[in-house]
Amino acid sequence: MGVNLIFRIAAVGILVSVLCQILKHSGREEQAFLTSLAGLLLVLFWMVPYIYQLFETMKELFAL
């Protein structure tokens, strides 16, 4: 996991929080919720390969 991924996650977090605040102040609560959910899913899809690699490493470590 490189620093590039951490910066991308931080950028998505900042962008989603700004969009959510704008949408909440304009009275669009549902769209703000969907925006935050979309940001969460995007970051999770980025993290899935690393989580898979972690579990594979743990499986190899404890395999006897």
Automatic annotation (TrEMBL):
- Residues that span the membrane, as ranges: 6-23, 32-52
> Which keywords describe this protein according to UniProt?
Membrane, Transmembrane, Transmembrane helix
**One Pfam match:** SpoIIIAC
Q: Does the keyword Transmembrane helix apply?
A: yes
Q: Which InterPro entries match?
A: Spore_III_AC, Spore_III_AC/AD
Magnesium as a keyword of this entry, yes or no, is no
The name of this protein is Stage III sporulation protein AC
- Natural source organism: Clostridium fessum
* The organism's taxonomic lineage, starting at the top: Bacteria, Bacillati, Bacillota, Clostridia, Eubacteriales
